[in-house]
Amino acid sequence: MRNTWETYNEKQLKEVDVFADEYRNFLDEGKTERECVDYIVNAAQAQGYREIQEVIKCGGRLVPGDKVYGVCMNKSVAMFRIGKKPMAEGMNILGAHIDSPRLDVKQNPLYEEGGFAYLDTHYYGGVKKYQWVTIPLSIHGVVVKKDGDIVEINIGESEDDPVFFISDLLIHLSQEQLEKKASKVIEGEALDLIIGNKPFIFGKEKEEQCADREVDNSKKKDKKGKKEKRKAKEAVKKGILEILKKQYDVEEDDFISAELEIVPAGKAREAGFDRSMILAYGQDDRVCAFTSLKAMLEVEETERTACCILVDKEEIGSVGATGMQSRFFENMVAEVMNLTGEYSELNVRRCLASSCMLSSDVSSAFDPAFAASFDKKNVAYLGGGMVFNKFTGSRGKSGSNDANAEYLAHIRRIFEEEKVNFQTAELGKVDLGGGGTIAYILALYGMNVIDSGVAVLNMHAPWEATSKADVYEAKRGYVAFLKGADL
Q1: What residues contact residue 448 under an 8 Å CB cut-off, 6+ apart?
Q2: Looking at the chain, which terminus has fewer C-beta neighbours within 10 angstroms, N or C?
Q3: Considering the entire predicted model, what is its pTM?
Q4: Long-range contacts for 370-373 (Cβ within 8 Å, ≥24 apart)?
Q5: Residue ranges of the chain with pLDDT lower than 50?
């Protein structure tokens, strides 16, 4: 296999670095699904995309060349560029997910123990829990108050911000801990975030406490003593609540209607002396979401309608209203077809069944340090170009979409004509690993679907690594697909 870097001329090498810088900025600005949707919508509107509800309200119509988008609960987005052919003849679809493994703050999270204030969390997606301790963490999300006001939270990314962390047992006392299995070294309920250590004792509060100690009446002393004891017991928590109220106008009860995500703090970085790689949080699957978005914005007029669907909840089974299993995508297709004058239930079914899709998700990259886990002939390599997985699933292909040979041959022709560097892979050795994507859900409509994307090292870790060349090739591949796929 030829390394992709060896195929580039000087002009392309510069394009790779420029594209990688833009990608790193996307990763920095989009550490949650909501932040990703904000970025995507702003980018789409700058390129002339209109929100579909606005088109509907004004009684508009869609014609070839028009561009529209729709958002579901600020966590999923679908984009359409209307092609020359009727939609009933099918679309070319790029699909990826914008959620990533993380820690979610529980609805009743704030407590104090041993002089520390904590937020209780519940991990989201497949994580190695021990990787999340002792690293700088940030808090992103929203707090929705009873009156409907939304408070946006982003703490830990600016150099002036505090960061947060989860503690681990010091090596000097960890003999018993180190004898546990890796899955048990850190338990899920132990992933509680330390957010403070300073008691709330200052100003008038402190003066009142001093005055209480000088009261001679025994009954008063007893009552005040109990009161002081209660205050001292949760003084750190009280201090945190004062900060939340003062800086964000948030009270403890507001956690009930909050969506707060704990993610690694810090910016995406270039990696290696040669700066050939990107090290960052959330590249599964935002690397495919970003390259799909850029392909949609770059592609000019197409014969078939081009579509990009970027969804939530893939890491936990694509469930819920914002996951791929919801009717959001299907409803969007129906609305778009209605605006083009093509809508009927039968035409929607024909459109979906006749479509071609790249289910864009990451693939596991070969790691020489753990070579025994991979089939070297059927694994993705960093720098090897865009990756195709004919099937995913686990063990006996359980839970897999398995693309047919005719479709794979069609994709090969497109990529070879456009000189897109690509490779094929599986997710580890047979009977050892596996995984899934949103491909099988779209395949239920009868459309042609294949898994494709970018190889990732350290997948699902707080910091994941990709090759700049692979990211650039993925975008080139997606553009070629939107232009040329038509079975």
Answers
A1: 355, 356, 357, 403, 404, 407, 410, 487
A2: N
A3: 0.92
A4: 373/428, 373/429, 373/432, 373/433
A5: 205, 209-211, 215
